[in-house]
Amino acid sequence: MSATxxxxxxxxxxxxxxxxxxxxxxxxxxxxxxGEAFGLLGRNGAGKTTLVKQIVGLMAPTSGEVRLxxxxxxxxxxxxxxxxxxxxxxxxPSLGDLRVSEAVAWTGMLRGVSKRPAHSEAEELIAQxxxxxxxxxxxxxxxxGQRRLVQIAMTLVGSLPVIILDEPTADIDPSLRKRIWQMxxxxxxxxxxxxxxxxxxxxxxxxxxxxxxxxxxxxVAAGAPGxxxxxxxxxxxxxxxxxxxxxxxxxxxxxxxxxxxxVRGRHISAWVPRDEAIRRLEKFMSAVDMDALEDVRLxxxxxxxxxxxxxxxxxxxxxxx
Amino acid sequence: MSASSRGKLTVLLWMQMARLxxxxxxxxxxxxAMPLGIALLMRAVMQPSQVSRYGVQIVAGSAVLAIAMTAxxxxxxxxxxxxxxxxxxxxxxxxxxxxxxxxxxLLSFAVFALPGTIIVxxxxxxxxxxxxxxxxxxxxxxxxxxFALAGIGLLxxxxxxxxxxxxxxxxxxxxxxxxxxxxxAATIPGWLGPLRAIIPxxxxxxxxxxxxxxxxxxxxxxxxxxxxxxxxxxxxxxxxPLWPRSE
Lengths: 321, 247
Prior knowledge:
- The complex is a heterodimer of chains A (321) and B (247).
- Chain A is built from 11 helices and 14 strands.
- Chain A is an alpha/beta fold and 321 residues long.
- In chain A, strand 7, helix 6 and strand 8 form a beta-alpha-beta unit.
- In chain A, helix 3 packs across helix 4 and helix 3 packs parallel to helix 5.
- Chain B starts with a helix and ends in an 8-residue tail after the last helix.
- At the A-B interface, helix 2, strand 6 and helix 3 of A face helix 1, helix 2 and helix 4 of B.
């Protein structure tokens, strides 16, 4: 393991499925350094999971190269990749016969941790993820959210230097989600290279140092969340919700608000130039009865907006290193 | 094998054996009920002279069928399920050799087959008035027969697109074992002879027969070596060229 090499280096990776012919990844390049939390964002089918499978050695790229601490993944034996990367896939492995404590501790032992430390680390993770009350229960008898928490514990046990999580907070209730993001953030601060694949942009934004937005197999935007949001900073979004059964037609509101405003039921959303936002809002408010509205707000661009824009107006960094 | 590799194999084996906590009853019943039922049926329709003539063949065939039920049908379905659910990918991302993963699955299913095999041999011997003095002879046949037949189960499990199809293919394979194993050679069409020579169950049955006569024969060693060869070949194929991989 080279001390100066990035934890993960993806160089010009292209993945083409043969049947049917689909270019899942096209010339993808990025690096992730130790101690960095990196997010891969994108819609379903953008090619995120395919890319991750190549990083963990489950698939070989059609061309290009993936390196972990300077060592090519595709030439490494599974054992060496598994000693470096812990991977949380989207699906649930069929390990339902194991008890929670066994699943976590035994995964640690398979990563090379001795029996006693593996069990004590498992116990600690189980407590942190509020699973202590079901520690002796078989996985098959847990709820979907609880099983996901066990999988997270199985991914974190053994403290590997690179952790890849594909939709870690799916099926988990909001209060625990915050705790999980906090745990992941803490791991990154302790030197772990963290790669998060997620749709949960709003929550992920709090822990990610850099993100890459993927669309149809390409990275269409990349950078720190603040930088990406800054590229939309010339715009502000006005959001209006009309009162239920009120006298105002949402479509008329949309026309008054801005050209290209989007109407979804009673919700109207319109992007306007930032320096015009206040004036337009004041003009709109003066012309409408306030009782006809349920909510009005001005929203500065979020990472979710960047995500939803799919990289439009967002040039990819020349060098995202 | 290093201490670390042995330790990991042990952990993998625990993970596979956990299946017994949930499913030991169905494994035991399925692996012993059908072979016992077939032996009982054959016993019921046979003339007394045929009992002494074909008894050993039928009991040995039924015992190997008990091994085949576990090592082919149940193992193929389990392997297809592990593959379909992404569990094989889970193991592939851990620092464990694929040989250890295969060995742990194979060993666990061999263990699942043992009680059913002993039950079938013991009750079958009682039904056909055979000796159980050399019951110990079941152990090497069970061990190497499981190893050899599990190769077929693993291959089907890896090749089948899903668990249901794995069940269908493995039942076909098991029926072949049943047909070519339990039925006496004289009753099978001659053109099927070569097929008998290339399926491991033939050698498992041959290795078991002398024990049911209450003695040991040097021919058994040859049959056991052939079983070991079948097992080694399929183990090599499964952990190497036939290991399931993504495109």
